[in-house]
Known about the structure:
Immunoglobulin-like, alpha+beta
Amino acid sequence: MSVKSIIIMAISGFFIVAGSALARTASPEGAQVYIISPVDGEVVNSPVTVKFGLKGMGVAPAGIDKPNTGHHHLLIDVTDGPALDKSLPVDANHKHFGGGQTEATVELSPGKRTLQLIMGDKNHIPHDPPVMSKETTIVVN
Ligand SMILES: [Cu+2]
């Protein structure tokens, strides 16, 4: 294989990735996600059960292409917010609930922690505009 064909393949690969990165799903107008519990300022023991609230749209498992739905993601100590134009990362700070769960029990280390919810579409990409909760700050014993 020539260097030129490798370069062409690399460039076309780049455009495929860039194209999918832009494919965001519209959110229904007025959709809201919020943390039912714990509440802002609450002092809790780990593990913590976080209850997810959602209005104006539905929950569907990841991979299911159904209008006006998404699945929950719990952001832990992600104070700058995630990138909105690509799939949410999968790591200790970005938890996916691709099974359609509406609550989760998470182990949290002691100290001040911020929790935030964001909906993702079938490809784990935030909707446009994003459906994102306020940050809930808790103190873990
Ligand atoms: Cu996800």
